[in-house]
Amino acid sequence: MHITLNGHPHDCGQGSTVSQLLLAAGYAGRRVAVEVNHEIVPRSQHDGHALHEGDQVEIVHAIGGG
Amino acid sequence: MNIKTIDSTDSLVIAGKSYGSRLLTGTGKYKDLDETRRASLAAGAQIVTAAIRRVNLGQDPNAPNLLDALPPHEFTLLPNTAGCYNAVDAVRTCKLARELLDGHQLVKLEVLGDERTLFPDVVETLKAAEQLVADGFEVMVYTSDDPILARKLEQIGCVAVMPLAAPIGSGQGIQNKYNLMEIIENAKVPVIVDAGVGTASDAAIAMELGCDGVLMNTAIAGAKDPVLMAHAMKLAVEAGRAAFRAGRIPRKRFASASSPIDGTIG
């Protein structure tokens, strides 16, 4: 299944959830926030939120800035 | 009278929360996270800004990050919308920040107009501020030094108005005293100078004008010794605040002797 992850094409398994995507990317349990198609997916819903073909996913974190 | 008692009654209140420190610091441009932390501590900052960015996929996800160096239980994180050039992106960024920080509502809104000046796009800023306030955010807003605009942002419900004193990162110092004074006199929410400070005396001048606080990043992070400059800025903000509260003497054209005239010999 093809999605766009942080602006780049990305392949993941059919029906993958947000949690599975985070695990595969190495961010399981890390302090990140996730948005799918411009909508926040709260941490409590990562397990249950299934991704779909063409989804635009953003994984963000906090970095230094002024 | 005890100085400590005086100071403890003079806190900065933002969205109902009191802060003893009036120096807010940015966390960008440091050599590493250790220096970021040491400078933040030397500044005595209680509120520190953070940027929200995409994670770098493919890099070590377990590398230390900003929230490890400046944990939310120790500092009030102020996520910003730096790099946003329209209201839509700014609002999205704030929502991501709120999710990232477990429902945290305090944000620094900045919507930039162009890369050359980094001046705010005030039309987009107003739009974003309205949406964010309606959505329950506590918005500290980076704005131009226009007193009318500052008033509108306050009316919308922003919890602090943060005019620039000079362009971001320019280190030009306080270039707009009269506009800042006008904003300060009219505001009922804290006025925090955000951007333009170059060295300690600039921070002191901002505070002497009556600003409630100063937010800076480059002036500290870009100094040869950032930790020492952070310390200097802490002292400057405290000195400027004390001088403002003490009430300076009026400027006069001519001299006024400090010693009594009566009883001189000869």
UniProtKB/TrEMBL annotation, chain A:
Gene3D superfamilies: 3.10.20.30. It comes from the Bacteria. Pfam families: ThiS (PF02597). InterPro entries: Beta-grasp_dom_sf, Mopterin_synth/thiamin_S_b, Thi_S, ThiS/MoaD-like. NCBIfam families: thiS (TIGR01683). This is Sulfur carrier protein ThiS. It comes from Dyella acidiphila.
From TrEMBL, chain B:
The active site is at K108 (schiff-base intermediate with dxp). Pfam families: ThiG (PF05690). Belongs to the ThiG family. It comes from Dyella acidiphila. This is Thiazole synthase. Homotetramer. Forms heterodimers with either ThiH or ThiS. CDD domains: ThiG. Catalyzes the rearrangement of 1-deoxy-D-xylulose 5-phosphate (DXP) to produce the thiazole phosphate moiety of thiamine. Sulfur is provided by the thiocarboxylate moiety of the carrier protein ThiS. In vitro, sulfur can be provided by H(2)S. Its EC number is 2.8.1.10. It is found in: Cytoplasm. Residues 14-260 form the Thiazole synthase ThiG domain. The lineage of its organism: Bacteria, Pseudomonadati, Pseudomonadota, Gammaproteobacteria, Lysobacterales. The gene is thiG.
